[in-house]
Amino acid sequence: MNQEMLVAIGASCCLVAVLLLLLVVFKPRHGRVSLSQLIQPIDGPQVPKAGRALARATGSTIETINRFLDRRGSRYTMATTLELAGIRMRPADFIIRVAAVTGVAVLVFYLLELPGIAFIMLAAIPISAWAVIKIYTARREATFDDQLGDTLQLLSGGMRAGHSLMHAVDAAAIDSDAPMSEELARVVNETRLGRDAGQSLQDTALRMHSDDFSWVAQAIEINREVGGDLAEVLDHVGSTIRDRNQIRRQVKSLSAEGRTSAFVLFLLPILVFAGVMLLSPSYFSPLFATPLGIIVGIVSVILMGVGGFWLRAVIKIKF
To answer: CA dist 260 to 142, 162, 315, Å?
Structure first.
């Protein structure tokens, strides 16, 4: 496969992408008229035709993506994933932004006559977006665990002041920072709608992947069944959780060198490859132009993936 064939394939992919974009965005909409079109203001400001066309195009794209996600049954799952990552964005909007960034990156590298990097960007940018979601989710869960000790102290103080459990949870939600405030406010709202408080707390622990918060939910549920001083129980649980957090931070600091070495070992070949492709694109031309080079490239990607998973298993310490 020579350079001319790669350019032809790249041009064909760009043409197909443009045709699909035109088909999705500017396709006719049947039998749906918005309320703003039915009720037109008499003396109100007139919206420019370009603005109306852009709004219709955007709405049509969002509806198409939502129908596609609904057919696959992944719309709610993706919305939950974005919520857990702290990304306040609808799934359709997130997909549009990732697709736009991917299209711009592919077009830029294609115009720079770097078709190999352009093909890599087709997969690299969506994978990077998925990785960013995972990183934000892990960071939010870690922040939630770090805030748990102070939150339990607020709950026990509210219980000692004579407040009920849900009143203390509501006060803690107001006084805490995100993400703890968001999750506690969700528990309060679900309880006001008639859901059991223990089940709502347990679902929060499952959603945030927090074993410590699961202990808190179990302690509250046991106290509701057998009675006792809930404030004292929360104090003991909070003390245990603070000790665990201290050990967790110590383990994280001791393993920082290994994690840094793993990141360097994994990213160094990728960065060197990208740098050489930018500085001397013809250097790797045999890698894309010969069958043996393509096989070597595929095997290298597979081995990099295996090595990445191996390094992740080595540096991830559970206790």
So the answer is: 19, 49, 9
Q: Whole-angstrom Cα distance, residue 181 to residue 175?
A: 8
CA angle 87–89–93, rounded 5-degree value: 135
The per-residue pLDDT of the chain, averaged, comes to 79
- Rounded distance, CA 182 to CA 203, Å? 14
270-317 pLDDT tens trace: 888 888 877 887 887 777 778 888 888 888 889 888 888 888 887 777
Return d(Cα 230, Cα 166) in angstroms, integer: 13
Give the integer Cα–Cα distance in Å for 163 and 234. Answer: 14
Give DSSP secondary structure letters for 64-80: HHHHHHHHHT-HHHHHH
Contacts by 18-21, CB closer than 8 A, 24 or more apart:
none
- Residue 143 CA to residue 128 CA, distance in Å, equals 22
Asked if 311 and 264 touch (Cβ cutoff 8 Å), the reply is no
What gap in Å lies between CA 242 and CA 245, rounded to an integer?
5
Amino acid type, 147: Q
Residue found by looking up tokens 């939010």 in the block: 140
